[in-house]
Amino acid sequence: MTALHLDRLTWAEVKEEIQKGRDTVVVPFGSTEQHGRHMPLGTDAVLGDEIGWGLSERLDAFLAPTVRFGCSEHHLGFTGTISLGKETFRSIVADVVASLSGHGFQRIVLLPTHGGNFNPLAEAVAKIKPAKGVRILAFTDFEGFVNAAFESSRAFGVAAAKSGAHSGEWETSLMLALRPEQVKMDRAGEGFVGELSEIMSKVFDGIQNLVQNGVLGDPCPATAEAGKKYLKDIIAFFYRYLLSRNTGFNLIRDPGASRR
């Protein structure tokens, strides 16, 4: 088996696949928000599409459509950002899980690829009572996610501050690998390159209070070569997390072998 896009199948095809044993669905949660002067508003949604697909490949899972709006209030100082309120976001999570729970899925994997979604996702999952036989697996450790990115960047000699928590070298490298036509490196510029602890204490009051160009990190060292490696690394990171939860997953696939 391989991954399947849930929204490209008929209901009968989905039912048939579940009956054959494909019992897992991955649901990414991205955003539509500013990513500096050099990257598109849909960056986090693109990462949801691509990381979600790679993870689904390793799990032989369905990939649900990425939820393309998130909790982005701290980016509203920048034109074009669309933000959901936390209660709205929590309701969306609950409704998505409720919709999928009655169809025979045994595992629903909730995958945030935008920093503002991690805590609201944790709050939502804490209130959900899944249907009998359904397990919800949500990754909600934002600092763990960012530190995994920093570790990948170090392999290319990039310091954590430049790798960045938003639109820095790590995220820009990913977009250069995935959607190079959407990245404007001639407009890239260094943003806030301070400690992650300072970012976490201030950013949710409005990223513009930290830096005027909306970048946390430095995109200038970014390369597509690094981005290809980062994609493999972050897919493997999420997969190892699922294995650590004793989920019963035992198929380890090469995340670089994705078929779209």
Structure description:
- The chain is an alpha/beta fold.
- The chain contains nine helices and five strands, in the order E-H-E-H-E-H-E-H-E-H-H-H-H-H.
- It has helices at 11-19, 43-59, 86-101, 118-127, 142-154, 160-163, 169-178, 196-202, 224-244, and strands spanning 4-5, 24-29, 62-63, 107-112, 135-138.
- A five-stranded parallel sheet has the order 1-3-2-4-5, with helices on both faces.
- Strand 2, helix 2 (43-59) and strand 3 (62-63) form a beta-alpha-beta unit.
- Helix 2 crosses helix 9 (224-244), helix 3 (86-101) crosses helix 4 (118-127) and helix 5 packs across helix 9 (224-244).
- The radius of gyration is 18 Å and the shape is globular.
- Mean pLDDT is 93; it is low at 249-260.
